[in-house]
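WP5 quarterly update. Target: ornithine decarboxylase. Source organism: Stappia albiluteola. Length: 376 aa.
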Amino acid sequence: MTERIREFLRNRREDGPCVVVDLDVVRDNYHAFAHSLPDTRVFYAVKANPAPEILNLLAELGSSFDCASVAEIEMVLATGAGADRISFGNTIKKERDIARAFELGVRLFAVDCEAEVEKIARSAPGSRVFCRILCDGAGADWPLSRKFGCAPEMAPRVLELAHRLGLAAYGISFHVGSQQGNVDAWDSALGSAAAIFHDMAERGIQLSMVNMGGGFPAKYLKEMPGVPAYGEAIFRSLTRHFGNRLPETIIEPGRGMVGNAGLIEAEVVLISRKSDDDEVRWVYLDIGKFNGLAETMDEAIRYPILTDKDSDRKTPCVLAGPTCDSVDVLYEKTPYELPVSLAIGDKVLIEACGAYTTTYSSVAFNGFSPLASYVI
Ligand SMILES: *Cc1c(COP(=O)(O)O)cnc(C)c1O
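Structure tokens (predicted):
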């Protein structure tokens, strides 16, 4: 936790859980990406946390933006960043949203099939398109495989159609899976991208760009390599597969840009046991899957949790949220160790909550408000 967040929480009077994001950390993260991959443009993945203060800061630092919807495009334009700094990176778009984005000035679009190319050719004529290829997501705690991208063998056909329909066949994209712990996870996708560049050149079409997506981790309970290690591994793979003819490159960090910048303060609502011989305590917080901690789904993301009593002995607990829905359990398969002295009414601090918390909150399911958010 940063001193600024500590100070903010000391003075906060409102009730209920909240996330506090420190912009100084976001600024440091941006510089780490820019420094570790100096010839790569950064497109911040807006969905990770679209708070206007974060978008304004990143716009000021010179970042570009990966948007998934017209609403996200409008949020970025509201910062004053031009549409030339926006990529419409969702491969699943309504044609009228493509037309609206085009009207707003966006000229860079993701595709992963021929039908999407046809929509863009009709509603955003002349634009640049890049084709997303499938990645298996191995090594990632939050894989994004299957839903997005086509087999690498299919990409040349998709891009050739784009070229025939008057679009600029611009490049290849992929996402190695979110919270990717393996710094070499980019290598095989970069190999596929290079092969597609080669195939397209033989068809007389020069591709220019490789969009290497997100996947850069935040530090939760598990240790993770730092941004420089990712930068070095990616640069090694780029030169291995592209030699001295490196393509233009893009990265789209979401979690890696804002994850470690935010912290949630929550409260213990109840501590109980289910029977006299129950070996674990059930600890219920005022935050759960529906008001901020959706990424505990399948216990995929394991957040560090701090209390004022962490020097006391700890025993395993099932940790759950406050709603009347039995899926609202955070950690049960692998119980969470919490101090025996933890009591009802105690505050807990959940670290690395800057990404995928506010945007994954439901609108008052069971009457619990969406997560309150402060950006300082
Ligand atoms: C979600 C997403 C990202 C961000 O991924 P992180 O793992 O959070 O960095 C980047 N690009 C695309 C296309 C995405 O959908």
